Amino acid sequence: MKTEELTQNQAFLVLNALPHIGPITLNRILLELGNDPREVFKASSQRLEEIQGVGPVISTTILGWSGHFDLAREEERMKQAATTFIPSRAPNYPSRLREIDSAPIGMYRKGAYSFNQPNVAIVGSRRTTLYGQSTAKKLGAELARMGFCVVSGLARGIDTAAHEGALSVGGKTVAVLGNGIDIIYPAENLSLYRQIEGSGALLSEFPFTRRADKQSFAMRNRIVAGMSDAVVVVESDVSGGAMITARFAGEQGRLLFAVPGRIDQPSSAGCHQLIRDGATLCTGVDDIISELSYLDGLRPSAIPEKTIGSTALATSNLTADEQKVYVCFAGGALVSIDQIREQTSQTTAHLSATLMMLELKRVIVKRADGSFEAR
User: Fold this and answer.
1) Do the bridges between strand 106-110 and strand 201-204 make them parallel or antiparallel, or are there none, so unpaired?
2) How far apart are CA 208 and CA 132, in angstroms?
3) pTM score of the predicted model
4) How far is it, in rounded angstroms, from Cα 123 to Cα 234?
5) Residues 135, 107 contacting (CB under 8 angstroms)
6) pLDDT-based confidence at 307, cuts 50/70/90?
7) How many helices (DSSP H) and strands (DSSP E) are in the chain?
8) Are 335 and 372 in contact (CB under 8 A)?
9) DSSP-assigned beta bridge partners for residue 85
10) Residue 103 maps to a domain
11) Residues 29 and 119 grouped into a single domain
12) Given phi > 0 = left and psi -120 to 50 = alpha, else beta, which region is 93?
């Protein structure tokens, strides 16, 4: 295709894929040339090189774009993969992301979600503990139920748990990829990838077939933070990728939360360092909501309770004895069978039977240490 035949969307797509040009430089070029990407390809090399950050390598790459990028092949791949490209000027581009200096000039998207809810990112280690996974999943579910979109990176560990939590309540979740949108990494997340595509969105700034590397993951992390109102780090060592996301959150003026963990657990060391450095301690979703300080008119719409299989439905079907025991879990308390016996005055045998029925009705869960908590 000839340069003069490019549509505006095609011009964005080409610019986004060209090598040697970072997003800050691309945004500067567009600003200098009227925010129309077609004008970039009409400019002379001299005009391009008058722009800060543009030298002969970049100007030659832009003017010789057809030697670097096969537009027809990329458009065919997008068609086959049911993928769209959203320029940064489009109304369905994430609005918060557009605010940062290093915003991508466009992104590939799979899934129909239109980014119309406030976003909270949940990130953390790939090598996580059961505590970390449980916490991320619970936060993801509670935030999604309240009407937030949960953003993460589809990585194994905390990211996976956060996405799964949002999906478990029928909420919205967005996965930002550190590779081309046609590559599923890690491979074991194929099913999760498809679920997110079906009810949320997958995003990538990288062209098809681009493999992940250390640089691309860092670039992905800036998008995760940039499109979110807040970032929650659940577990991370001091040099983990989640710490890069946390740094971006600080630079971009986003609220930053860290979940505390065991002092002898390396996967909690990063979170403890963030808390020492000023991140807000996060012990539950209420801490996030309190800091966000949403007014009633700005709160997202909560997801209606599920009519089948939900805790709300299960608790409505409790017997009098079961209701009496269930009250002991108010406020998310973790309680032992001895504490419940003291509060209810039930015999141990009767109480054991009642707790078993509550477990079967899926309103409480027994923890590894023998205590109980509400689901």
Assistant:
1) antiparallel
2) 33
3) 0.79
4) 6
5) no
6) very low
7) 17, 11
8) yes
9) 108
10) no
11) no
12) beta
pLDDT of residue 103: 97
pLDDT in tens, 214-228: 899 999 999 999 999
CA 249 to CA 24: how far, in whole Å? 17
CA distance 38 to 4: 8
Helical pair 214-226 and 241-251, crossing angle rounded to 10 deg:
40
Peptide bond into 186 cis (omega under 30): yes
- The answer to whether residues 165 and 140 touch, using CB atoms and an 8 Å cutoff, is yes
* 197 vs 195: CA distance, rounded Å: 5
- Rounded Cα distance, 23 and 3, in Å: 21
Count the residues in the chain: 375
Q: What is the CATH number of the domain that holds 49?
A: 1.10.150.20
Rounded-to-integer distance, Cα 373 and Cα 254, Å: 32
- Give per-residue pLDDT as tens, 237-266: 998 899 999 999 999 999 999 999 988 888
163 and 57 within one domain: no
- Domain count across the chain: 3
Range of the structural domain that residue 45 is part of: 3-74
Residue pointed to by tokens 């046609």? 182
Element holding 216 (H helix, E strand): helix 214-226
Indicate the pairing of strand 280-281 with strand 173-176: unpaired
C-alpha triplet 133, 135, 137: angle, nearest 5°? 65
Looking at the fold, whether 254 and 355 belong to one and the same domain comes out as no
* Rounded-to-integer distance, Cα 100 and Cα 106, Å: 13
